[in-house]
Amino acid sequence: MKNLETIIQICKQRGFIFQSAEIYGGLKGFYDYGYLGVLLKNNLKNLWLKSIVFSRDNIFLIESSIVGPRKVYEASGHIEGFQDPLVECKNCHQRFRSDHLMKGEYGEVKLKDNKPLCPLCGGELTEERQFNLMFKTYVGPVEELATEAYLRPETAQGMFCNFKNVLNSMRTKLPFGIAQIGKAFRNEITPRNFIFRIREFEQMELEFFIDPKEAEKWYKYWVEERYGWYLKLGFKKENIRKREYLREELAHYSAATTDIEYKFPWGFDELEGIANRTNYDLSRHSHFSGEELVYFDEKTKKKILPYVIEPSVGVERLLLAVLVEFYDEDIIEGERRRIFRFPPFLAPIKVAVFPLLGNKKKLVDKAKEVYQIVKKDFISFYDESGSIGRRYRRQDEIGTPFCLTIDFQTLEDETVTIRDRDSTKQERIKIEEISEYLKSVFSNND
Length: 446
Ligand code: GAP
Prior knowledge:
Blueprint: H1 4-14, E1 17-19, E2 31-33, H2 35-54, E3 59-61, E4 67-69, H3 70-76, H4 78-81, E5 83-88, E6 95-97, H5 98-102, E7 111-112, E8 115-116, E9 129-132, E10 136-138, E11 148-151, H6 156-161, H7 163-170, E12 176-185, E13 200-210, H8 215-233, E14 240-244, E15 256-264, E16 267-278, H9 280-289, E17 295-297, E18 302-304, E19 307-314, H10 315-326, E20 327-332, E21 335-340, E22 351-355, H11 361-375, E23 380-382, H12 388-398, E24 402-406, H13 408-413, E25 415-420, E26 426-430, H14 434-445
Parallel strand pairs: 3-12, 22-23, 22-24
Antiparallel strand pairs: 1-2, 4-11, 5-6, 5-9, 7-8, 10-11, 12-13, 13-19, 14-15, 15-16, 16-19, 17-18, 20-21, 24-25, 25-26
Helix pairs in contact: 2-10, 3-9
Bound molecules: glycyl-adenosine-5'-phosphate (GAP).
Glycyl-adenosine-5'-phosphate is lined by residues 154, 156, 186, 188, 197-198, 201, 203, 205, 270-273, 310, 312-314, 316-317.
């Protein structure tokens, strides 16, 4: 039932997500977001900000630049180590990530003389080589090593580079965090599964700086905190799990990592990673920049090189998980209904307003009046075209929790029907009570 193709189709048809540069044949691994996609992404980002930043006193938001000089990525280890193994078919010239190829992600792989063949055409493959995933550019008109710069492959490095600025300007103490939401770019060899693995995406990252002695405690804290956040978002327990990395799976900077995995249509896969990055980044940036990135402990009068715990999640990957989690189909009045059962606080459009008949001026005028009232407090949608049943279906398909219909009785007693998306039950409510009623529903869910 949770067919990825159906979700992709609704996303395009209803205005959540479009292929980037589609009219020119599309650019692989890049997507554009329509009105509903932007609203849903904003809701997710705001919920993350509330949970990570605004509900705490010791975590500060920053926005660092996307383009960074070569030095930053030499220090971070990305120039040397941020690469994936690549093979190319000598016959059809399709390129593959060889570790994914061996896992069967491109289809069945046949062997010849113990070497894998192209899963598409059966052709011979080149020897494996390492491919760096960073997008390179030059700053200014001269293209030389000194002007070489990179689109950031993670937002994290901007936070390490600003460690001292935030520490000093916020006059904070350990433990404290720097958080950021922003674009990251990776020239993935094979983007796949719609918006799961893409080349331009947004990350929501927290770098939480701690006394090294407390690393284990804070690592466990953030794993549980982040896992709990997904349950609060409304993910079913059976669709979400924690997976701790084996030693050999760890990134070059990490002493321990736990992934929060979601049950995507192709199986459990990474949604978010929580890593103990040790003091790797601060010590490397201290070394490469010559700036001492340490914390001075007033009590012991000693310098501490903090450790970092980092929860990091991609906004689009989370968006995909949300679309999959809340997509549903049922039968209403003998007709198949496609529906997103978003919790009200997540829904992109909160309320839709309809006149029962779009060709009756009195109903249309009254409906527009009600629309102006609800629009002040909630992102709303007005629709007068097509049968009322069809209008309800269109809202169900984009996950709008409530529809208000203005009918002939409204003109007599100032009441409208309010229809619940999930149960399809309708009740009458006074126009003057609508806003209070909806506010209570949305705040209960927040
Ligand atoms: N700063 C740590 C870091 O970047 P990562 O595991 O490479 O770690 C963190 O990425 C998160 O960013 C992932 O769990 C995923 O949600 C998201 N992400 C990474 N690569 C992505 C891609 N190509 N497309 C979409 N999301 C991606």
